[in-house]
Amino acid sequence: MSDLAANAVLTSLARSPVLAHFSQGGLERLAASGGWLALEPGELLFQAGDPGDAVYVIVDGEVEVRNSTLDGREVRLVALGPGALVGEMAALDGGPRSADVAATRRARLWRVARSAMLAALEAEPKAAVALVIELSARLRVAD
């Protein structure tokens, strides 16, 4: 990875409300353990029911989290932009994805495998607490 790309990844990780609680070393380990993923507008990152094998950090662009109603209508739950963490619920508990996520415009994401994310959270409890707070806030908004 070029210095410019590495810088973009580290900046995005540090911009995340959750990941900003990691030490510089922790951020560097997350950056080193991940890989790029590019999405075009309308392209799915994952669908409800897919395995929760990774967490994603949006480096640039935007994705939307959406669910389908019983009558088949798609409901947009939230749009997420640079620095946002996506897919963390399923990556934490290892269960299936609970919603669809698709790009609303061209997006680049940094994919971190579930095992690397769990190891990083175990090593840095402050970041784990920040993640619990973020998940609680999202649940509160959803209610």
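(the above was protein one; protein two follows)
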Amino acid sequence: IRRVGSGASRCKRVRVKLVQIDGKLPNLALMQLASWHKARGDEVVYTRETSHELFDGDFDRVYGSAIFKFSADKIARLRHTYPDAIIGGTGSDSTRTIEDVIGGEWDERDYSLYPAYAPSLGFTQRGCRLSCKFCVVPGKEGKARSVMSIADIWRGEGHPKRLHLLDNDFFGQPEDQWRARVAEIRDGGFKVCLNQGINVRHLTPAAAEALASMEIRDDQFKERRIYTAWDNLKDEEVFFRGARMLVDAGIKPRQIMAYMLVGFDKKETWDRIWHRFNRMVAFGIEPYPMVFDCRATDPERYRALKQFPRWVVTGLYRAVPFSEYDASKKSKREQEAVTGDLFA
């Protein structure tokens, strides 16, 4: 790959390849890069393939973006195909940012990479107040802070008033800022999905009431849904304190989905897993187990744990005891279910 200058004065048209290595949602980094290159008259090709494709031709620059650590094989394949590819994201070992690559700030996004995607995607805040050992957010983004208004994120007239916010700690930004975002969402008649989850451990009654006042939806914008997480048994009391705040604010327990990290704590037992699961089910919360990728250190444990989320997210836990569940005989519903690993 031949490197080219990024200055506005250059006249050579550059051919660029953008590779989305993983992830189901549109990739914001690639959307920004596409917009930046197109603004300079460059040709941009988007793909999810990490190998050469028929009629590919040559590229002056290749970018890859990976979210998950389990995409290491795909990253290696892309590097083999394009040794000088610029690869970033939480799934890679690179700390380079878009600003590092293009030499400055660029917030424009090219949605033409994803013509079937209707919502507007973005962040109102970055960073997090917590420092969970399994999470990369504090190290990559630092402390919680405000970054964009709803007007900055929404694609504008002619597009649905649906916002898919990727905030990791929406209420971690200064209170005057999150209140302003809530007012913008509510007054603008937006439906919003916060599927990265609300930090229930630091939830306040005011924040719970703000959530209840908005049209909060799941990632398909069909059902009312609040996403949160219960990852450690020691957080039991504070987790249910926050859950009760949500209910007191008018949110039904069945409208709460809690990501449930399993497999990270080496001392974790099945009894402790079942305790968290059963408490949430009894409260009316929908658990969503996510297996930490421990294949490299304990593959046997990983294989055993992987059956658990399949049994839960398909809803089979309501009808089939886990002891009778056979993961090798997947139902049609299970085959269509979305399961995944929490990135390391």
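Reviewer note on protein two: The chain has a mean pLDDT of 88.
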